[in-house]
Write a structure and sequence with these properties.
The complex is a heterodimer.
Chain A: H1 2-10, H2 12-35, E1 41-42, H3 50-56, E2 58-59, H4 63-70, H5 72-105, H6 109-120, H7 127-138, H8 144-151, H9 166-191, H10 195-203, H11 208-233, H12 240-245, H13 254-257, H14 260-269, H15 274-302
Antiparallel strand pairs in A: 1-2
Helix pairs in contact in A: 4-15, 5-9, 5-11, 6-9, 11-15, 14-15
Chain B: H1 2-20, H2 28-56, H3 60-66, H4 78-85, H5 88-120, H6 127-135, H7 144-154, H8 162-165, H9 172-185, H10 188-196, H11 201-212, H12 214-229, H13 233-238, H14 247-264, H15 268-277, H16 281-312
The chains are: A mainly alpha, B mainly alpha.
């Protein structure tokens, strides 16, 4: 015991440095973990604060989960979350790598830089701003898209109340926001490829296309694998802003825009079904945890240095 | 005869290649195609912002007739005049955002850099414990509801500026990036020599680590500045007090109250009156422009450090 205190004393400066961060992790990461037990309770807010609310709420066992999975919502939100994320991962990978190769092959370095600067912009904007951007195109009576439809003599479309367009719109908007950033990631690793490989290929008479196929893409494969696996680890988490701000929280679109995160949020803030949304949250956390561990295990086997832990 | 022709062929070939095909480069035709693809996409990325700027300079009266136009028939500064004349709410929202961004960036930089420094020190006895303590938080997530209960109920931060600052203050991923940065950019021998000279950990951190890790700290600082500036989610959960609403969240609230009035008012006169009390289309777009402008100005820095940040984390201990 004495040596324990001696160690604490000896490390006091460094302990003092980790203290603020450690307290933060405790309150914002570890304590919420304990709070997930509300998924097994009929939660009631108590005036006497957090602990009283938790203790006084009644245990209901798996009831919240039974209710959740007996609704159509559970299927809808799982399907939407998974399918959108799969689309984002696949299309994001293909287009970001293509764009990175294009940017690296442009003859003019200066033009390449200018294009990158443009492509990078959407990444820095919040989903609220992007929501306004999208509205300037899709507004029923003023939007650019309906005007263009008008030039061709076509009917105006009520974009914000017709679900059938939204899978495409959401995928397009997400690609627009993310491809620039991702292609710069890939571009950085293309520029890091050993130049002597290309020189050797040139001496052997390989054309530029053969070089791209035979050198660039194989050299990118590890980072492509890792980025994809890390994204797979997060496949159960949706980007709340995209699914909440861009469709302007339009109720008629919920069938195709409701994902686990928006469902949990609405349970907490609007519909008041805290038990069920806490159950959905825990369901997300557990499956998400398993997927992160699983994908990280594979990343570790591919490339030890790129794994999270 | 055949042999001779072959010889002449092989002799000719390298010459021909040099003239018509350069293996360093794609052919001019493909270069044009590539330029077109990259240029069009880059333009598509910037275009919506330009379009919103145009709308914000459009005269409100022509907007109702012709919608959002690339070249409106009448330009106007009315939206900006409206904002600066009745702009108390906007000004306050700007103030909240600036305050939260400044406080938040400082708080998170201090917390992250100190934590990262401590777990980068080999002589720190609890190094392993605190590394794992941080890394584990990347793997699980209690979710929105327990977090909400803790921030709102246990910590009592509802309608407090700290509800906008604290939830984004720490990030295990940034801690790991910075720890890696320290261990690659500051040689151990330098820290040792500092110790021999009798410097304490804090002095070593301030005098040796910080000056040598400025690019890494700048990267993390910019990440968090951007995170705070663009945050609306925490305001959505924790802020009801109109005096504490940040910029992004205010833009969101205007939009949803517009929709609420349009959808729920049966009496056309009341809804007209209520709608007129809200900023008009052009004014809202002008607010979007004003909320984005600081990012556009800071853009050169962002771009430089973000690209650098991508490579900072790439080297692992």
């Amino acid at each position: 015991m004495g040596s324990f205190f001696k160690n604490i004393y000896r490390n006091k400066a460094l302990l003092f440095m980790v203290l603020p961060g450690a307290i933060w992790f405790f309150f914002f990461s570890y304590l919420p973990l304990a709070g997930t037990i509300v998924a097994f309770k009929e939660y009631r807010f108590s005036r006497h604060g957090f602990w009283a609310s938790i203790v006084r709420s009644e245990w209901v066992g798996w009831d919240n989960f039974k209710f959740l999975f007996s609704t159509d919502d559970a299927f809808t939100i799982t399907r939407n979350t998974l399918l959108y994320n799969i689309a984002f991962i696949v299309l994001g990978l293909v287009f970001a790598v293509l764009m990175a190769i294009i940017l690296s092959e442009l003859v003019s370095r200066k033009m390449s830089k200018i294009y990158q600067t443009g492509m990078f912009l959407p990444y820095f904007l919040s989903w609220v701003i992007v929501g306004y951007f999208v509205f300037s195109f899709l507004s029923m009576d003023r939007g650019l898209l309906n005007q263009i439809l008008g030039w061709f003599g076509m009917e105006r479309v009520q974009w914000y109340s017709d679900p059938k367009y939204w899978p495409y719109i959401l995928i397009l908007v997400n690609m627009w926001k993310m491809i620039g950033y991702n292609s710069v990631v890939y571009l950085a690793s293309i520029l890091g490829i050993d130049k002597s490989l290309y020189e050797a290929a040139m001496i052997d008479g390989a054309s530029k296309w053969q070089q791209i196929k035979g050198i660039t893409i194989p050299m990118l494969t590890p980072i492509m694998t890792i980025m994809t696996l890390l994204a797979v680890g997060k496949i159960f988490y949706a980007d709340f802003g995209l699914f909440y701000q861009v469709p302007r929280d339009s109720g008629t679109l919920y069938a195709v825009t409701n994902v686990i995160d928006t469902y949990v949020y609405r349970g907490l803030m609007t519909t008041g079904e805290i038990g069920m949304s806490a159950a959905a949250g825990l369901y997300q956390s557990v499956v998400g945890f398993v997927l992160v561990i699983f994908s990280n295990y594979i990343v570790r086997r591919v490339d030890r240095d790129s794994s999270l832990f | 005869m055949q042999l001779a022709r072959k010889e002449s062929n092989t002799r000719k070939e390298p010459k021909k290649r040099l003239r018509t095909r350069d293996f360093h480069r794609i052919s001019p035709g493909w270069n044009i195609v590539f330029n077109l693809i990259a240029g069009l996409f880059a333009f598509a990325c910037v275009f919506p912002f330009i379009f919103v700027v145009i709308i914000s300079f459009t005269d409100e009266s022509v907007l109702a007739l012709e919608g959002y136009r690339l070249i409106p028939s009448k330009w106007s500064l009315g939206a900006y005049r409206y904002i600066f004349e009745s702009g108390d709410t906007l000004l306050r929202a700007y103030g909240v955002t600036i305050a939260v961004t400044l406080i938040g960036t400082v708080v998170s930089l201090v917390m992250i850099s100190l934590y990262a420094y401590a777990i980068s020190r080999r002589n720190f006895r609890y190094r392993r414990f605190f590394s794992i303590f941080a890394i584990l938080t990347m793997l699980f997530n209690g979710g929105m509801i327990p977090t909400y209960m803790i921030v709102a109920q246990l910590l009592g931060l509802k309608n407090s500026i700290w509800a906008l600052v604290l939830p984004l203050a720490m990030n295990a991923f940034y801690v790991m990036i910075l720890r890696t940065f320290y261990s690659t950019s500051v040689p151990d021998a330098l820290i040792e020599s500092g110790k021999i000279d009798g410097a304490g950990e804090f002095r070593i951190f301030l005098r040796i680590i910080v000056p040598l890790s400025l690019p890494g700290l700048a990267t993390i600082g910019l990440f968090s500045t951007l995170g705070y500036w663009n945050d609306w989610f925490n305001a959505l959960l924790y802020i009801d007090n109109p005096n504490l609403v940040p910029l992004q969240s205010m833009l969101m609230r205007i939009e949803s109250s517009m929709q609420f009035i349009q959808q729920n008012s049966s009496n056309a006169n009341i809804s007209m009156a209520a709608l007129q009390s809200l900023p008009q289309d052009t004014a809202r777009m002008a607010m979007v422009v004003l909320a984005t402008l600081p990012i556009i100005f800071a853009y050169p820095f962002f771009q430089r450090y973000f690209v650098q940040g991508l490579t900072v984390g790439a080297v692992k201990e």
